[in-house]
Amino acid sequence: xxxxxxxxxxxxxxxxxxxxxxxxxxxxxxxxxxxxxxxxxxxxxxxxxxxxxxxxxxxxxxxxxxxxxxxxxxxxxxxxxxxxxxxxxxxxxxxxxxxxxxxxxxxxxxxxxxxxxxxxxxxxxxxxxxxxxxxxxxxxxxxxxxxxxxxxxxxxxxxxxxxxxxxxxxxxxxxxxxxxxxxxxxxxxxxxxxxxxxxxxxxxxxxxxxxxxxxxxxxxxxxxxxxxxxxxxxxxxxxxxxxxxxxxxxxxxxxxxxxxxxxxxxxxxxxxxxxxxxxxxxxxxxxxxxxxxxxxxxxxxxxxxxxxxxxxxxxxxxxxxxxxxxxxxxxxxxxxxxxxxxxxxxxxxxxxxxxxxxxxxx
Length: 362
Known about the structure:
Blueprint: E1 22-24, H1 40-50, E2 56-63, H2 83-95, E3 99-105, H3 135-155, E4 159-164, H4 169-174, H5 189-192, H6 194-207, E5 212-217, H7 226-238, E6 244-248, H8 266-271, E7 279-283, H9 289-297, E8 302-305, H10 307-311, H11 315-321, H12 334-339, H13 344-351
Parallel strand pairs: 1-2, 1-8, 2-3, 3-4, 4-5, 5-6, 6-7, 7-8
Helix pairs in contact: 1-2, 2-3, 3-6
Keywords: Flavoprotein, Oxidoreductase
Protein name: 2,4-dienoyl-CoA reductase-like NADH-dependent reductase (Old Yellow Enzyme family)
Pfam family, one: Oxidored_FMN
């Protein structure tokens, strides 16, 4: 396929179509207020993105419970008091012509007590002195995901993306290393995936047929098993439980090193699954127009832009204007990011990413 194919519309099982194949990945910016309400910096960021040519824009990870917080100044969607700011974000994105989604997040055992987090481990062995959450607590958090999706819908978002990656709570429950439960949420794959499936099915039941549901999945670290995740994904595709899979890889070109899929690209393990009407996209070092187009050839329906979107807010427009476009090389100076419109809060967050900001730059 050519770069021009990236600008073809993409229909979804539910709700409206994406106008093109560019989705903004959920980027943690840590620029909200301390209570999780959207700040003026969040709003300015959304205004920039809304004019940047994306087909769908995801918010940063938003807490479904106050105790599920992982980052200082993390966006929240756990309270009706947060609705005005979220409503403004959805409005701006809609007026810019893109679809919108809130990424729903709970940190699980990685919640940080220093900023109000309440660790919620699947197992009593994960954190010293912290008991596994009870069955009733799992069900409460499940219902919090569903309630947050309902808030997103009330705020005017086209959908939500359920964060099931990076060892956060849903990913944690999928891992046989982090989940040794004896109740209905632990044991075999069916039980360990029950939490994820109940969240997704509950959102669909509550929000209806016109609301879009995405699912972010990672396959590395935390004891996750690639073969099991492929099996679960195949079931979700077959039952068309989601509108799109957001496959979060460190590198979209990475190769499986061991197991039954050794030697294959991680992406091919998932693009080879019959997906019916579900759409599949990937994130991971997509820094050039050429690489984005190649991923359509490799079986993706869309691409998720992350770092490239921080470096150049209007990455899709740059690609449209120049089929040979390449992102600026990392690291960049803080001044470069500031000139591009990043807030000081966001820049400080990016200083914590290895090789992103030149050390000591102002």
